[in-house]
Specification:
The chain is of the alpha+beta class and about 750 residues long. It is about 25% helix and about 25% strand.
Length: about 750
Amino acid sequence: MSSVRDWEASNPIKEGRQGVFGKPVDRYEGPLKVTGAAPYAYEVEPPSPAAYGVMIGAEIACGRIVAADIAEAQAQPGVRLVWTHANAPAQAPKGTRKHPRSTSPSRPALEDNRVAYFGQPVAFVVADTLEQAVGASHLVRLSYAEEPQNSDFHASLAEAVDPPGEEDVEIGDFDAGLAASAVKLDETWTTPIQNHVQMEPCATTAWWDGETCVVHTSVQMVKPAQHGLAETLGIDRDAVRLLTRYIGGGFGGKGQTYDDLTLAALAARELRQPVKVAFTRRQMMHGTIHRPATVQRVRLGADRDGRLNAMSIVTWTHCHRDGQFTEHASNFARSLYAAPNRLTGHRLVKLDLPGAGPMRAPGEASGTLSLECAMDELAEQLGLDPIELRIRNEPEADPETGKPFSMRQLVRCMTEGAQQFGWDRRNPKPGQVRDGRWLVGLGMAAAIRGNFLLPAKCSFSVDVDGIVTVRQGMTDIGTGTYTVLAQIAAETLGVPLEKVRVEIGDSELPPAPGSGGQFGAATAGSAALDAGMNLRKALAELAVNDPASPLHGAAVEAVAFHDGLIAVENRSETLVDLVRRSAPQGLAAEGEIRPAADARNWSQHTYGAHFCEVGVDPVTGETRVRRMLGVFAAGRIVNAKTARSQLTGGMIWGVASAIHEGNAVDARYGSLINQDLAQYMVTVQADLGELDAVMLDEVDDKANPLGIKGVGELGNSGAGAAVANAIYNACGVRVRDYPITPDKLLPGLIRAGF
């Protein structure tokens, strides 16, 4: 296994001779998407006309199906099949693995008569047209034996237990440190359930090619989806070809598969015809995962000079009755600020709700909403500027592990951001600045997100026309994977971007972990760099060993690649000439990346600082974000345009978390109240003023051979807290129950005399 020291060597990305790395390159697949030529899963044209499937959700949260009358639905024109648990095809039992190395177990649909959550798919109709299937679905009559259910998180906190395999982490003596502190803070914050509301719902188009099941589906991880479907169907993994070439947003909600995939594959096999299945928007709210609600208790203790003696954040959260997902909203705090006495941990409540799971910046998005506001409250008690308080608690090494940081520019993010934003004009006394009817305030917050590298493979090839093709079982959920891989290929082999072709999202291609967790570009890109370097070496060897090449006899390591040429000093020839003469069949090479054996000897993170200006209407309680700035340090930036898009998108999500977004549970039925985009509030363009993201120069050679890190989660980490802190600065009302809506602000505004 390699060492991070190996990654310090020079490579074409670091040299940048081709000049495309780090530049604001337009999206590789952009023209295809805007012209409608990039088919999403439901839009894929199958080899023959498709039938259409519609899922039917349970109307209770817990119980059994005791009767299912499908006769009327079956009798409708165009209906091809109607399934419930009573007549669905046999599938492997849930959680089983026929293949020990499968990355996902069986996930059968319509498995039995048990109902585990409201909206669970419990019946399925397939017809010749979508309209016929929808019409027939309303004629399926299901009778239930309802059982007592509990979906009330806040009423169930006493039932919380430690998550499986976890216990609290304590460094030093927290209680003693807190008791000895001159200034203390002990407050509780709450965050609600959030739904992913991707633009594209989960969907699948499936057909069978002989004994092979071909599925186009919207999922973030290729191999687990392929393996899980094979396990469910009870067939060999190679008998499933899974493609996910274009994905209309994922945010973690498509990190797993759902019943659309299984039911489409089963129905296509049954009917010997392609079948399309898609979740409706309302079904997405219950039938897929969500970010769970949290209760977070934050306790801080500091000396009069602002040095933390004690820091604790303990989070209560919930998951499905049969699940174990934990929203790790306390973990980020373990590496953020110095304090000798520390206590962090989580508590988990099992409820009769749909599955909880990862959602953009899982852990940090929720957790920073408490700690980063608590730091502002502590700063006010101490009479310190919020940035100064954070700087005084900047650790020299990871405060829990003692490991050195691979790269840490958090203080620079805060100080440069403060200068650009005009932080020195902030009035520290709340409620003092007006602009017409609006109370105006400024707030800030720090951001942190861990850096990860996973195993991946990739292949490169070049043909007689000089076209370099990148092939990898990676995905692009709108984050720019296509473009990043094209940039790496162009830079590594010295060809123009228009000479690069990228093929991803196919289980038959070299495996990669997929998109998520902010590890996608670093992992996929590092494997691509290795494949490109191997092809580069093969081409160099071809040239120096070819008597017809002007490079004949030169040293392999002396060969340079740029502008479509291969050259040694003043001798050169085109890549096309070399391949046509010496490798008319083309040339290919593979590469891979694995985490270095010593990579975890360093504490690796990305950092940022958010700044926000809001206006609060003291009469209506309305909050408007007037301007927002984020300054980030996240390794070498691959593409300035797509990276900025990711960061600003995360910042917008943070605004939503602070003032708009959340879903409530109707505890009587175990159902989510907001079930479509007419009711579920998200931040839109009209809600925002000026918005910008700045990326600091940084290269982290401990991270990977490219020196890059992810940005997809970082922009959402801390952004909401900056908004909340700005609201307090504007009006002096501190709301610790998110989102901060007018009804929560108005009582405080009235008490304050506004």
